Amino acid sequence: MKLHFFCGPLTAVSIPTPVNVTTDASLPLAKRGCFLSKQDTDDLPVCTTLSVQYFNELIADYNFLPQRDCLFYLGLGGGKGQQLAKQWYCQKRSFGRGAVSWDTALPQKLHSDMFMKYAGKKGPKIGDPSQEDDLFGISASLLSQAMGESCNGNVYFFTPTANDGSDPITNVWYQFEYPALTRDSAARSSPVLSILKVDPTLTDADGNFLDEGTVMWTPAHGPSPNAPLGDGYSFTYQGSL
Where are the domains of the chain? Predict the structure, then answer.
């Protein structure tokens, strides 16, 4: 069994039990047009209506993210940045409450079961509905914003020292994640206390991370000047998944 990303003794943080999914119309996910992809006890909902609210509901149902420190990354090579963020956290915060990144915010089966079905399919581009975009990219960005709206406590942002988070200006951190983190959200169980910027490329000869993290944001800084790009976006895919 593949365990979710976690550092520290197993007694420190409980691993959540997968949520039982029902199609009862009184539940939020069912109201938004979700259905079961297969008739198995381990199956998870697939929804053809994409919005930040939908992903917030999935995060809340799974209840893994709100109990952990959120990790975000930019300009580190995609998957490589994700791994560097996890490695840094395990080395520097090994006895913390555990961490969550984009790939563990939802159950692994839901990532593969839903997102891969969107690959190659098109929908209106977030921020410019006159253009088309890949539904996988749309889903990924909306999930990123939902993460930002659901995180709490200390948040970690991994990027090279020279990047202030706005290079390029169209990146997911600048357009979706950072604006969501710096605003009050009904999806948030408690406030974001700080965002710490970390350069995980700074290591010694033995591979130990040198950057302890620098506070780049606290509530005293106020919200980012730009609102999260996914606000108000909702698209219902009419084709077959």
Answer: 28-233
The whole model's pTM is what?
Answer: 0.82
**Residue 41 CB partners (closer than 8 Å, separation 6+):** 20
Structure tokens at 86: 């996890």
| Angle in degrees, CA 21, 27, 32, rounded to 5 | 95
CA-angle at 219, arms to 214 and 12, nearest 5°? 65
> What confidence score (pLDDT) does residue 213 get?
96
Task: Express each pLDDT in 6-30 by its tens digit.
Answer: 454 323 333 233 333 333 434 444 3
**Residues in contact with 82: Cβ distance below 8 Å, sequence separation at least 6, in sequence order:** 71, 73, 101, 102, 103
Give the helix/strand (H/E) hosting 70. strand 69-73
Q: Which amino acid is at 13?
A: V
CA distance 221 to 34: 38
* 5 Cβ contact list (under 8 Å, min separation 6): 86, 98, 99, 100, 101, 103, 104
